[in-house]
Each structure stands twice: as C-alpha cells, then as structure tokens.
C-alpha cells in the first residue's frame, strides 16, 4: 500500500521538509506558516521579486537558500540583495524546462550533497507553494512538473490557499484528512486521469461518489467535485492519477 499522509504538512521533522516558492501572488499567512515549518527554501526565479516586496519590514527573516531559474524576470537589485544575505544562485538557461522543473531537478541533485542538505531526496517532503489559477498553460506546466519530479522525493505536493494537489502512484493510496485544513468547500476533492490513455479498474472508498472498478479517461469519466466523507479515503488504480483537495488555510 502506498500511504499518502497529509499530516507531514503540520507534524514531522522540520529538517525533512523543503519549500519551493513559485512566481505568483501570495497569501502572507500561509507563506509564513510554510516557511517556518520547513528547513530548506528554494525560490524560482521571478518569485524572488514577490518575496522581496512582500515583507519589506522583515525582509531579512525570509532569505531563500537557493534561487534557481534562467533569471529572465529576476530584478537585478533583488538578486544583489539576496546574494549579499547568503542566498546561493543557480542559473539554468535550459528553455525546455520550466522554472519549477529546474527547481525540483536541482533540489534532487543538491540533496545528494551532505554539505548542502542533511536529508537525501528519498526522505525529503517537498511543498511547492503555488496555485493552478491564472493561465491554463502555467497550470498544465505545474502538473507536468509534479509528474516529472515526484519519483525523486518522499512526497511532493502543491500547496495553495484554496487547494492542494499531488500525484497518486499506481497501487492503493490511503489519504488522511487533517483537521487543520479547515476545508472551505466541504472537503471537495477530485481524481483526474493523466494523458490520453485510459486508466482502468479505479476503485475508491470514503468518498461521496465512490468509483467501483471504473474506467477513467478525458472525454469519458473524470471524478471532479467529489467529496471526502470521512477522515480517510482510499484510491486504488493501476496507473498514475492526480488527487486534489479543497482547503481553507487557517493556521
């Protein structure tokens, strides 16, 4: 059984948790919570501009360990500031990868260096602070990045003010709800198939509309706007699926 346990967002060893911050508008309180409960912080390119502007009164408290990207949108004064305060910079000009691809790939490589990180990637929980709102191409790019990188880490989850998203690997996945989530939409969840290939034999428990040996595919069946009824649910499938859960962050 593959256990997908959301408790690590609130409990667990801080040194095993890393935050990756994307270029987007921020919920200050959620950002501060994720920052203080993670030990390693990576900022994607232009996201450093947002970070620089968001806490002018406490800027020195939020210095990322690494800034990664091609720096096409990073302001020079922001780069100078963070470098002067100890941030490491990794410039990656590869235009075939998104900034999130680059952050996750380099994070995987950095975790192999004990002088940089004390935790190998297979023990690392990675929280990507981001959202699927806005441009559709960015949303699909983020989903693709999670699919690409999730095998590298112990856990990889996209965290936003209104929802979380993760990739479910093949097998039986147990998903535990946290009371701290304070769901804003009645624990609305979604199970989404990937790509154009059908996913056969999908079975769930603990949802309002359970699937029973169902076939999922775009153009046929997707389980959007479902709902968790209990504190845990299971999703069993022979292929990868996307799991989403609506949340209201009050931490």
UniProtKB/TrEMBL annotation:
<dbReference type="InterPro" id="IPR016966">
    <property type="entry name" value="Thiamin_pyrophosphokinase_euk"/>
</dbReference>
<feature type="domain" description="Thiamin pyrophosphokinase thiamin-binding">
    <location>
        <begin position="171"/>
        <end position="242"/>
    </location>
</feature>
<keyword id="KW-0418">Kinase</keyword>
<dbReference type="GO" id="GO:0006772">
    <property type="term" value="P:thiamine metabolic process"/>
</dbReference>
<keyword id="KW-0067">ATP-binding</keyword>
<dbReference type="GO" id="GO:0009229">
    <property type="term" value="P:thiamine diphosphate biosynthetic process"/>
</dbReference>
<dbReference type="GO" id="GO:0005524">
    <property type="term" value="F:ATP binding"/>
</dbReference>
<dbReference type="InterPro" id="IPR006282">
    <property type="entry name" value="Thi_PPkinase"/>
</dbReference>
<dbReference type="InterPro" id="IPR036371">
    <property type="entry name" value="TPK_B1-bd_sf"/>
</dbReference>
<comment type="pathway">
    <text>Cofactor biosynthesis; thiamine diphosphate biosynthesis; thiamine diphosphate from thiamine: step 1/1.</text>
</comment>
<comment type="similarity">
    <text>Belongs to the thiamine pyrophosphokinase family.</text>
</comment>
<keyword id="KW-0808">Transferase</keyword>
<dbReference type="InterPro" id="IPR007373">
    <property type="entry name" value="Thiamin_PyroPKinase_B1-bd"/>
</dbReference>
<dbReference type="InterPro" id="IPR036759">
    <property type="entry name" value="TPK_catalytic_sf"/>
</dbReference>
<dbReference type="GO" id="GO:0016301">
    <property type="term" value="F:kinase activity"/>
</dbReference>
<protein>
    <recommendedName>
        <fullName>Thiamine pyrophosphokinase</fullName>
        <ecNumber>2.7.6.2</ecNumber>
    </recommendedName>
</protein>
<dbReference type="Pfam" id="PF04265">
    <property type="entry name" value="TPK_B1_binding"/>
</dbReference>
<dbReference type="GO" id="GO:0004788">
    <property type="term" value="F:thiamine diphosphokinase activity"/>
</dbReference>
<dbReference type="GO" id="GO:0030975">
    <property type="term" value="F:thiamine binding"/>
</dbReference>
<dbReference type="InterPro" id="IPR007371">
    <property type="entry name" value="TPK_catalytic"/>
</dbReference>
<dbReference type="Pfam" id="PF04263">
    <property type="entry name" value="TPK_catalytic"/>
</dbReference>
<keyword id="KW-0547">Nucleotide-binding</keyword>
